[in-house]
Amino acid sequence: xxxxLIEKFxxxxxxxxxxxxxxxxxxKAMDADVKKENLSSVQQLGVExxxxxxxxxxxxxxxxxxxLCFVLKNCEEFLKQQQRTVVSSLCCLQEHYAGYDWFASSxxxxxxxxxxxxxxxxxxxxxxxxxxxxxxxxxxLSMHLPVTTxxxxxxPVYFCSAHHVEMLLKAExxxxxxxxxxxxxxxxxxxxxxxxxxxxxxxxxxxICHYIAICIFLGPDYQIYICIxxxxxxxxxxxxxxxx
Length: 244
Prior knowledge:
This protein has 14 helices and no strands. The protein is mainly alpha-helical and 244 residues long. Helix 1 packs parallel to helix 12 and helix 4 packs parallel to helix 6. The termini are far apart.
C-alpha cells in the first residue's frame, strides 16, 4: 500500500512543472551498460546488509542481490548525467559517492525488491526538492549546486537540515542543547549520521517507512521536525548520560 501511495504521489508531482525543482534528463536503464561497472567494497557490504535485512523482514526473495546491484549501478549512471567535474583530493569529491546509498536501498525494500519499479520511482523522485534532502547521493557533485558549495564537499543536508535542527533545539529542548555543548559534540553530527543512513540501525522498519513517506508527502522540512522529536524522545537518556 505504501509503495503504491508514494508512487502515485511522486508520479503526479513529477508531471507538474511547478513541483519539479530539478531537471531529470533522459535515461534508460540497460543491463548491458551497467554490467561492466563494479561496486566498491563499501557498496558490496551495504548490499549484503540490505539483502539480509530485507529477507529478515520477508520483503525480498533469493535473487534480490542482483536486483539491488542493478538499481545501485543505474542510479550512479543516471545521477552522473547531472554531475560536474571537480579536481580535489577530498575523498568525498571523487567521481563515485563515497558512502552507501541507503535511501535507494530503502525504496528497493519498500518496492519488495522490484528493480524496474524502484528505478522508475527514483528517476521521477529525483526532480522533486525532497530528493535533495532524503537521497544524499542525489546532490553528489551536482550541477544544481553552486561550484563553491560543491568544492567545500559539505552536503546541503548538513548546512540546511542539521543547522535548523540545532537552531530549533535551542528553543525547544534547551537542556538537550546544553548537554551537547558540555559533551563537545554537536547535534548536527548525529543528525547527519541519522539522515545519511536513512535512520537504519536507529529506528524500526515501519518507522523508517513513516519517515520517508512523511517527508515526501509533507515536505523535506519534516526531516528537521523528526530529528527534533527524536531528541525529545531521547531527552531523559541524554541527560542521564550527561550526569554520568
